[in-house]
Amino acid sequence: MVDLEPKLSDYALIGNSCSAALVSKYGSIDWCCLPEFHSPAIFAALLDRKKGGHFCIKPAGENQPIQKYLDDTNVVETLFTTQTGQVRLVDAFVAVQEKERESYPFPDLEILRIVEGISGVVKMEFEYAPRKFYGKTNAVLENRNKLGIQCSWQENILNLLTTLDPDDLTTERDSAVTAEFNVKAGQTLFFSLSYSNQSPAVLPELKETAWQRMKQTIQYWRTWIHKCNYTGPYQVHVRRSALALKLLSHAPSGSIVAAPTTSLPERIGGNRNWDYRYCWLRDASFTTRALVKLGFEDEVHAYMNWILHATRLTRPQLQVVYSVYGHSKLKEQTLDWLQGFRDSRPVRIGNNADTQFQLDVYGEVLDAINTYSSLVKQFDKNTTNFIIGLGKVICKKWDKPDNGIWEIRSSKIHHTHSKVMAWVGLDRLIKLCDKYNWSHAPLGEFHRNLTLIRKKVEQKGYNSRLKSYTRELEGSDLDASLLTLPLVGYCSYMSPRMMSTVDLIQERLSKGSLVYRYRNISDGLGGDEGSFGICNFWLVENLVRSGKIKRGIEVFETTLHHAGACGLFSEQIDPDSHELIGNFPQGFTHIGLINGAIAISEEVKKNKHGTERF
Question: Which of 308, 413, 409 lies closest to 359 in space, CA to CA?
Answer without folding.
Answer: 413
